[in-house]
Backbone:
């Protein structure tokens, strides 16, 4: 069975309800480090917000900027990218490529009227389940404080 294309996995489930705003967050994470940390957080029963939908990728270096833009177009209020610490990438320098892309993406987002803090990049190692929990919780709080991404009013969103 063929794997589902990445583009089809970055859509966000609706999470707005009558109880108030709950942000839609897409997490684009490295399978070797951040995804493993998420698994560790779950196995050790660390609680973190359910607003994050994880998309497991082989490496953050493979994140095409279109994935991030697609996430925002499909309803994400924030995108968190998580990868191996610099120097620990299983693909040598994929995380450094991701860092450069994120810097460029923040400039593009700013020019499109999207606050650049809606895109986060964190280095989270495989044994750092607690750090995963803290980063996800902090990012969800930040996105909740920012409120929903304005997709109306004549903008491209």
Residues:
């Amino acid at each position: 069975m063929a794997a589902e294309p990445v583009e089809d996995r970055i859509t966000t489930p609706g999470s707005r309800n009558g109880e108030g705003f709950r942000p839609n967050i897409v997490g684009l994470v490295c399978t070797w480090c951040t995804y493993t940390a998420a698994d560790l957080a779950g196995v050790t029963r660390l609680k973190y917000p359910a607003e994050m939908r994880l998309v497991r990728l082989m490496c953050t270096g493979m994140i095409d900027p279109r994935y991030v833009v697609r996430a925002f177009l499909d309803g994400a209020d924030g995108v968190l990218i998580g990868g191996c610490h610099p120097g620990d990438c299983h693909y040598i320098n994929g995380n450094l490529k991701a860092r450069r892309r994120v810097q460029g993406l923040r400039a593009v987002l700013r020019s499109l009227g999207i606050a650049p803090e809606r895109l986060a990049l964190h280095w989270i190692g495989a044994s750092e389940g607690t750090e995963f929990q803290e980063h996800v919780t902090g990012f969800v709080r930040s996105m909740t404080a920012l409120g929903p991404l304005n997709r109306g009013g004549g903008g491209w969103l």
User: Anything to note?
Assistant: The chain has a mean pLDDT of 88. Residues 94-111 form the longest helix (18 residues). The chain is about 40% helix and 15% strand.
